Amino acid sequence: MKNEIRIVDTSIEDQIKKELKTQPGSERDRIFSKFFGAALGGIPWVGGFLTTLTDLHFDDQPKNNLLYEKWLEEHRTKMKLLGETLYEVVKKLNEFSEEINERLESEEYLQIVRKSFRTWDNADTFEKRELIRKLITNAGGQKIVADDLIRLFLDWLNLYHEIHFSVIKVIYQNQNATRNEIWQELNGAYVREDSMEADLFKMLIRDLSMGGVIRQYRATDYNGNFVKQQRKKTYSTGTLKSAFDDNEKYVLTDLGHNFVHYTMNELNTKIG
């Protein structure tokens, strides 16, 4: 006897359209259909999963059936998360006026959608998927920076770990924070300079500095040129600078500020 899995309606697009009550055949309905196509097309396993769900019959092979069911269960969970993300993005975009319609159906934006959902699929945590969701929404509802930079922000989301984003958030909320102040916000515990924690913290600061996300504070003149600092006389203490130095201050670069805007803030203001 063959095992057969009963399938319920799994059409993400139909369910979201029902929730949003978009008029069939309307311009927004057509635009969001393109959006769904780009989003789902950016995730390789989606097509195969939906095909399997809608036409699934197992031979009488209990071991293979069990493995297949486990595979399906994992992808059902991912599909549920995908549906929730799509719904949140489209719901937010649907609140904007028709002035953004041209942006939403542009190939430039749809390319960002495809790349975003590929990155979303590789994300390990809810926190990173939320950053990606906000970027997709903000990139559709406004255009403050060039699309090339938005793709760079996606690369950063793929490259950096959640703890990197924690450092960025601390500096964003506390401009001119020293390493010691950043550490106090993140952890606060006393650790040795030669400890694993100190090594990790130095790595985070180094990664973000070399990546152009943060930098040490430097005074600028009226035209934005960095002012050359006078060297101060220092007295040797016999030890190297601490990983938790409390003198030099850190700020976000302009790129870093825009990254925060696109990935950590919810867009609430309508275009107009």
Task: Describe the model.
With 272 residues, the protein is mostly helical. It has two domains: 3-145, no CATH class; 163-228 and 239-261, Orthogonal Bundle (Arc Repressor Mutant, subunit A). The protein is 59% helix and 5% strand. The chain contains twelve helices and five strands. The chain has helices spanning 12-20, 27-41, 45-54, 62-93, 101-104, 107-122, 126-141, 147-159, 162-173, 179-186, 196-210, 254-264, and strands at residues 3-4, 57-58, 177-178, 214-216, 249-252. The strands form two sheets. The chain has a three-stranded antiparallel β-sheet. A two-stranded antiparallel sheet has the order 1-2. Helix 9 packs across helix 11 (196-210). The protein is globular. 23% of the residues are buried. The model is unreliable at 1-10 (pLDDT under 50).
What count of domains describes the coordinates?
Answer: 2
Helix content: 55-70%
Radius of gyration: 24 Å
Low-confidence blocks of residues = 1-10
Query: Span from first to last CA?
Result: 63 Å
**Can you tell me the overall shape?**
globular
Strand order of the largest sheet: 3-5-4
How many helical elements? Answer: 12
Mean pLDDT: 83
What percentage of the residues does DSSP assign to strands (E)?
Answer: under 5%
Order of helices and strands: EHHHEHHHHHHEHHEEH
Largest sheet data: 3 strands, antiparallel
Using DSSP, what is the number of strands?
Answer: 5
Class computed from helices, strands and strand pairing:
mainly alpha
